[in-house]
User: What shape does this take?
Amino acid sequence: MNKKTLTLSDFEEAFGEKLSPRVAQKIAAAGLEVTPLSPSERDSVLLAIIKTLLDPNIERVGAHRIAKWEKGWGDNLAALKEGKGEALVPYYFKNDAIARWRGEFIRPSAPGFDYKSLEIILEWIYELYGLDWAEASQGIISEMVSQGKITNVEGKRFDFFNPDASFALADESIAYTVAALEQVGENHEKFIEYLLGQPGLSMAVHVEPVAELLDSNNLLDYLSIEYFRRRNYLWGFLTNLRRLEAEGKIKIHRAQRTNIGGTMFVEHYQVIAWSPVKRA
Assistant: This one.
């Protein structure tokens, strides 16, 4: 099978719009060289996914996994203190041999395809600031500040399962989540209620696994949706936002599939942007 390097035009087709020079530069620097899978390779991947989905011991996400997240970010914090170059890349970005691109499996030529994909998506939507559930991640931010790597940044712990209403957002704030809400499963309503209760919120942007934006009649999408279900990843989130929009409480500006990123099991970088409807 012939190798191909994903270009600006490929991403513009995937995202469905023209991209800025800043995003174009990010795409060029990523050097995402990929190879399509042969029919037999594709069948092998599908078989591995189906076997995983049928495994009764597959681990489900939820509040009970906080210790694992503390451990994972704690490892990153320790690596940062030791001056290791890869310290700022979360270790859950595995160097998987198989990834997804526009509804098909591909084989990246080099490690880091999923991480670089997310970097391009974030460049596209322009990340601003963030909070995290695991306390170790705030330690990473503090350590980066102490080392002079970043300035004017502060990290705070934020529990999606029990949001602290006293944590007030400044006027004209934009809240965003990146591969974070997947851990709450169906328990996302408290977080949305928190955001709607913040007068300063102007917009929320989410880069998350959103089953509603995948096509259950497509085999690869169906398997991704079922993996979300079995692992208890974010579920019913867009449906809830659409209900709030129908009630006149929010306006959804974008609910879009990016067609890139993920592993052999999931396509997990969909983008949702919404804002509260301000009452006079």
Observations:
- Residues 66-81 form the longest helix (16 residues).
- The two ends are 60 Å apart (CA to CA).
